[in-house]
Design brief:
The structure holds 2 protein chains of 2 kinds. Chain A is 50% helix and 14% strand. Chain A is α/β, with parallel strands linked by helices. In chain A, the strands form 5 sheets. Chain A has an 8-stranded parallel sheet with strand order 7-5-8-4-9-14-3-15, sandwiched between helices. In chain A, helix 13 runs antiparallel to helix 16, helix 13 crosses helix 21 and helix 24 runs parallel beside helix 26. Chain A is globular. Chain B is an alpha/beta fold. Classes of the chains: A alpha/beta, B alpha/beta. Chains A and B meet through helix 33 of A and helix 7 of B. Chain A: It is found in: Nucleus. Chain A: It comes from Polyrhizophydium stewartii.
Chain lengths: 793, 457
Amino acid sequence: MKFEVDGLPVLFPYEYIYPEQYAYMLDIKRTLDAQGHCLLEMPSGTGKTISLLSLIVAYQQHYPEKRKLIYCSRTVPEIEKALAELQRLMAYRASHGRNEAFLGVGLTSRRNLCIHPRVSKEKRGSLTDAQCRNLTSPWVREAAKSDPEIELCEFYETLEGADMSATVPSGVYTIEDLKEYSQSKKYCPYFLARRLLPFANVIIYSYHYLLDPKVADLVSRELSKDCIVVFDEAHNIDNVCTESLSIDISRPILEASARSVADLSQRIDRMKVSNAEKLQSEYSMLLEGLRNTQEAREAGEIMSNPILPGDILSEAVPGNIRRAEHFVAFLRRFIEYLKASRHMTRMRVMHVVAESPTSFLQHIKEITYIDRKPLRFCAERLASLIRTLEINDLADFRSLQKVASFATLVATYQKGTISHCACICVASAGPFENDLDTIPNPVLHFTCLDATLAIKPVFERFSSVIITSGTLSPMELYPSLLGFEPTVTESYQMTLTRTCFLPLIVTRGSDQVTVSSKFEVRNDPAVVRNYGNILLEFAKITPDGLVCFFPSYLYMESIVSAWNDMGMLNELLKYKLIFIETPDATETSIALENYRQACDNGRGAVLLSVARGKVSEGVDFDHHFGRAVILFGIPYQYTESRILKARLEYLRDNNRIRENDFLTFDAMRHGAQCVGRVLRGKTDYGLMVFADKRFARVDKRTKLPKWILSGITEAGINLSTDMAVSMAKKFLRTMAQPLEGNQLGVSLWDAAEVRRRYPPKDESASAADAPIARVSGHSHYSNGHALVAMDTS
Amino acid sequence: MADAADEDERRESGRNYSWEEDYKRSWDMLLEDDQGSLQGIVANLQQQQLLLKRRRLNKDTDAVAQRGIIRQLFVVVDQSSAMAELDLRPNRLDCTLNLLEAFVTEFFDQNPLSHVGVTATRDGGAEKWAELSGNPADLVRVFAKRESRQTSGEPSLQNALELARRSLAHVPQHVSREILVVFGSLTSCDPGNLGETIESLASDHIRVSVVGLAAEVQACKRLCSATKGTYGVVMNDAHYKELLFDHIPPPALAVAQQSQSNIIQMGFPIVRTFDLPVLCICHQRPIRRGHICPRCAATICEIPTDCCICSLTLVSSPSLARSYHHLFPVPAFVEVPAAAAASAHPPAPAECFCCLAPFAKQRGPDDAYSLDANGTANGHGAAGSATSATAPHRPGPSAAAGAGSLAAATGAAALAPPSRFACPLCKTQVCLECDVYIHDVLHNCPGCLSGGHPAGR
C-alpha cells in the first residue's frame, strides 16, 4: 500500500498497516527532520523492523541527500531477518515502478561468511579468523609472489585482482545471497561486504561494528556524518557499551602473554639477524603512521575511537618503547608486575581489592617505574610490532593483546576524560573451578562504569540515532545513562481487536502466603512450595510450551532441588517434560531443540531458565513454543557484586541516579524482556505471570512497558494462585476460539483509512520533490550498478 | 478412618471440595446500562450468539457439490486423569459421555447410512470400546458402562489415532472416513512421532476433527489442518454440545473422492408387532415389536443397523429422506442493511415473513421492553420453543425473548447488527431468529415453499 507520512510518500509492502506502525513512522520522520536522536518503544511483533525500513528507505529515496542507513541488530538471525524484510520491501517498491539504484548489505563475521572450502569448515570463529589471516595478510601475499608453494585464498585473490572494475548489481543481499553471488564470481564475501559498505544505502550489522572500539576502527571508519543509525533491540545497549570497554584478566591469560612476550623477543632476535633494516624502518614509520591517522581524523573521516584518544596522536610514541626490544622488555616488566601485584597474590583469603586507575598507576610507578604515558601507547605499539614481525597467527597473541589493551585503557581513562573517572580495577577471587579446588582463581576485572564512553562518539558523529526495542521501559533513565538528548521519546501501545496477552500478578499462593524472591524469604519452605504450586498449576492448564524465568542460576538450582525433594518434579512430569537452561551454550541449545520438539509433538514442555541468560535475550517463543511465561521473583542483579556496587556508586555520584532506582530499572527491563518473549505477533497469544509480591507495588509495576501495562486489569494485580489459574483457564479458552470479527479500521488500516485519518497536507510540494530525488539517484550510480572501488593499500 | 479413606479417594480422583473450586467471576460480564437495567446486556449477548451461529450455519452451505452421506466415524474418547476436572458438570468425562449419547442418537438420526465406532485412550495406551456399528443403542450402552467413567494416567493421541486408523483402513474409498477426538488433556504421551501418524492419516484421506476441552494444543491444530478436519475448544457445556453437534451434518467430500459414484444395497424393514414376545436375532432379547429384514427375514430389535445375518444395511425410509437436506441445503440468506431496507422500492416489508414480528428500528430500550411481550405473544413462541426443544443448548427460557428484544440491543446504534435477512431465491425477508431456525431445524425456506412472498412474485 502507498500512503503519506507527514508529506513523505511511503510504500509499505503489506496491504494493511497497524495504527501504531503509522505513529512510529511519524515519529521517526520527525526525528530525521530534526536531525536528532530518539528513543522509541514499540511492542514486539507489531512489525517494528518493516516500518522502520520502509520509512527510512522512502526518506532516502525522496530527499536528495540520500542519507545512509546503518541498522544495528543484536544477533545473526536478527540481521538475517532484517535483510529479508528489506529485500521484500525493495521488491515491492520495484513492483510499483520504483526502480531505484539501491544497495543493501549485511555484514557479519568471517565465520558466517567464509566460502573457502577448508577455512569455512572451522567450528570456532577465532580459528576461522586466524586461518583467513594466514591466507590473506599482505606479507603472506607478498611472500607468495616469490614462493608459489605458499597457499593463498583464491576468493580473496580474485577480489583483489578485480580491482576497480568490480561491480555489484544493485539490490539487497542477504547473507546467503552474498555468498551465492560471491561463489559465482569467486569473490570473498566477507571482504566484498566490507568494501561495499561505503557504497551501500543500507548497512545491516551487529552493534559491535559501531560500539566496540577495536572493531569499529576497522569497519566503520568511513561512514559519513549524516548517516541514520538505528539500534534495534537496544534495551541492553548500556551494557553492551560498558562491556566493550571492559577487560577481564585471569592468571592463565597472564601466563599466556608471558609466553607470547618470550616468543616476540625470539622473533625480534631472529629478525635482527635477517632483516635489521625492517626494524629500523618500523621505528621511523611508527611516528608517521600515527600522524597519518591524525590527519585523517581532522578531515572528519574516521570515527573517533575512544581507545585512541585525541591527544595521543599529537604526541610522539615515547622513546622507551620505540625500539622493538625495549618494548618487549617493557611488556615483560608490566606482566611480571601484574602477576606479582597484590591483585593476583593476595588471594589466599577471599579478599577483593578494588581501586581506581589512578591509584593503580601510582602503585605501578612506585614499584616498576612504568609511566602512564608509554602504557597508553601499548596497544598501538603492539599492533605495529606484530605487523612488522609479519605474524599471522594472531590467536596465540590474543592474551597479550588483551593485556596491552588493558594497559592502554587503564592509562587513558583516568585523566584523559576528567569528568569520567570511570574505570575501576576490581580484582576479585573468581569462582572456583569446582568445590575440591581450594586454590583461588583470581581475576582482574577492568570494568567500564560509564556507558557514555563507548557510545559518545556515535552520538557525536551521527546526526540521527534511533534507539528502539520492544521493551525499553522505564525509558526515562536511558538518556541519562547514555548521555544524549532525545528529540522524541515515545512508547506505543498495541491496538488489538482482542486482548491477546494476559498479564497476571500473583502475589500469594492458594494458602494466602505471600510469595517473593526477596533474599530473606526466598528459601522459606512455604515460598518454595507455593512457587512449585504455581508452576504445577500452570503446567496443568497451559498447552504446549511453558517458560519459567528465575532471577539467578543459583536460585534456580536450589529451588529446583527443593522441588525435587518435595516430589513436585515427578508430579510436573505428568503434564510436561522439563528442560533446564545451563550456563553452557551447547547444552542449552540442545535443551532448546528438544523443548521445541516436545512442544511440536503435543507432549508439552517446561523450560526453566534464567532471566539474564541466553534464553531470555535472543530466543523467541512464538505461538505454541510459549503459551505462558512465569517470572519467579523480580530479576534483580546480584547486589553484592563489587562491580555492580562500583557502578551504582558511580551512577549515584555522576548521573544522580539512586542505587535503588537503577536496580529496579534494570530488573524491570529484564523482566519485561522475559515476558515479552511469548508474544511475537498479533496472531500470537500468551499468559504472562509475574509471581512476586513486589510486582503489585506501584513503583515496580509502572516501570513495565506501556503495552504490557495496558493489559493489566484492576482484577489482575493482586491474585492468589487459584484466582490466577481460573482467569488463565478462561483466557486460554477464549483465545482458542476462531478469530471473529473484522479488524479493519480498528487494528488494521488500509491506505484509504490512513488518508482519512491523516489527510495529506500539500501534495503539490511533494510531487515536485520526487523527480529531483530520482535524477540525483541516477547520478550516483551508472545503469543500476554500484561501482566498487578498491582500496589498494 | 473412614474419613481418611474418603479423603484419599477424593484426592486421587482429583476432585475438590466445593469451597476449593474455581473462581467464578460471573458478575464480570454483566454491566448495568444507564437505567441500571441488565436487560440490554443480556439481550445483546443472545444476539451475539445468534449471529455467531448464523455465520457458522451459513459457512459451508454454498458451493458444495457432494457430501459424504455414507460415513464411517470413529469417536476417540480421552479417558486420562485430566478428564476428571470439574470445569464441566458433573465432570469432564461424565459430561462428555452424556453428550456423546445424545450425539450418537442424533447422528444416526441424520446419517442413517453411517457407522460409528469408539476407542478410548488412557495410561498411554488405547483400547477399542466398540467396533464400527450402525446401531446407536449398542454405543449408548457402551457409554453407560461404569468402567467407561473411570479416569487414569495420560492419554496417547498417537495410539488412539493409529487404532482408529487401522479400523478404518478396510473401508472403501467412496465412504467418508472420519475420526472425532474428544481431548481433555493438554499433553499426549506417545510412543513415537505424532507427525508420522498425521501424515499417514492425511494420505489415507481420513478426516480428523478434535474437540478440545481445555485449551488449544498445537499438535491437535496441526492434526486437524493436515487432515482437513476442524478444531474447536469448548468454552462451557453449551458450547461443548454445539461443537460436538457440528459434526453431525456430513462433511463435503474431498475432490479425490468426488468422481466415484456407487450403488448401495439397503433394506427398508417392515415393522411387526408380535402377540407373544420373540427373541431378537441381534441381542437375543425378548421383544414384542421388531423389524423384519427384507432379505433374510431376521427379526431385528432396532434400526438403523446392519442385519446381523445378511449384513444388509437396514434403515427406515423416513430417516433416509431426512439426510436429503444435506445435499440440497437452504441457501444462505443475505443480510439486508437497514439503510437499504428504508430506501427500497417497493417498500420493504415491515415484519418478518415467518413470525410476523416487526423488524427493529431505532428504538429506545423502553420500547423494546413492551415489544418483548408482544414478540413472544404473536407466534414467536412456537418457533422459540421448537428451537429450544431440538437445541436445548440455546440459553434456555429466554430464547424466545431474545427475538423480541432485538431492538434492546440497538441502544448503541453503531453496533446494531443487521436485523433482516433475505432469501436469495424468493426474496422474503425474515428476522435473525427465524433465519437461524430455518437453517438449523427446518431445512426448508417457508417463502419458497409457499410459492414465494407477494413482493417476490
